[in-house]
Amino acid sequence: MAPKQQNERKPAKGTTRLVNFRLNEAEFEEADLLAQQTYRSRALFIRTMYLLGLQTYRRQHPAD
């Protein structure tokens, strides 16, 4: 039996994409805990962390 494919939810204008990535168990549990503590979904918490990391990366690598 083929694995069930996850449906991609899009906002009204379809401006976002679903992205899959891996976390080890400790990272997953920490993300889950921090998301709960900040009253966010895990997905929103991880997206926020990505965006903060991207800002830092761009500051450290302005020519890239």
Helix content: 40-55%
Distance between the termini: 44 Å
What's the alpha carbon Rg, rounded to whole Å? Answer: 15 Å
Please tell me the overall pLDDT.
Answer: 85
General shape: extended
Show unreliable segments: none
* Beta-strand residue fraction: under 5%
Major sheet attributes:
none
What's the short version?
The chain has 2 helices and no strands. It has 64 residues and is an all-alpha fold.
Describe this structure as you would to a colleague:
It is a single chain. Helix content is 50%, strand content 0%. The protein is mainly α and 64 residues long. The longest helix is centred in the last third of the chain and has 19 residues, at 42-60. The protein is extended and about 35 Å long. The mean pLDDT is 85.
Helix/strand layout:
Elements: H1 25-37, H2 42-60
Helix pairs in contact: 1-2
Give the tags.
mainly alpha; 64 residues; 50% helix
